[in-house]
Design a protein that fits this description.
Layout (H helix, E strand, L loop, with lengths): L4 H10 L3 H11 L3 E8 L2 H16 L5 E7 L3 E4 L12 H6 L3 E4 L5
Parallel strand pairs: 1-2, 3-4
Protein name: BPL/LPL catalytic domain-containing protein
GO biological process, one term: protein lipoylation
GO molecular function: lipoyl(octanoyl) transferase activity
Length: 106
């Protein structure tokens, strides 16, 4: 691998294990895909994130960073109770905010 030739020289000098050298070089040569998505609703972003995680685990894609924001959105996690909300669901809707119940920690 020849991603960082001057850095590779330093690695050769200071890292003695061949296997470790290979691991270090692989880490240095990894790529990161950045997706600038603007404003996207919570459920669409969640579905995309789940698909990307699946594809990454299968080695189909490289590491990916999503840059996005949601319209006003509230989530309640697995220890949820509606008394955690300071306003009613109807009030949230009237303000243009979405409420989602999630399975994980939020």
């Amino acid at each position: 691998m020849k991603c960082f030739s001057s850095l590779e020289i330093e690695i050769q000098r200071f890292v003695t294990s061949h296997d470790l050298k290979i691991k270090v070089m692989r880490l240095l040569c990894r790529s990161l895909e950045v997706l600038k998505m603007g404003t996207i609703n919570y459920l669409d972003a969640l579905k995309l994130q789940e698909k990307l995680v699946s594809d990454r685990k299968l080695g189909k894609i490289s590491d990916t960073l999503l840059s996005l924001q949601h319209p006003p959105t509230y989530t309640l996690g697995k220890r949820r109770t509606d008394h955690n909300l300071l306003v009613s669901k109807d009030e949230l809707q009237s303000m243009g905010a979405e409420l989602h119940y999630t399975e994980g920690e939020t």
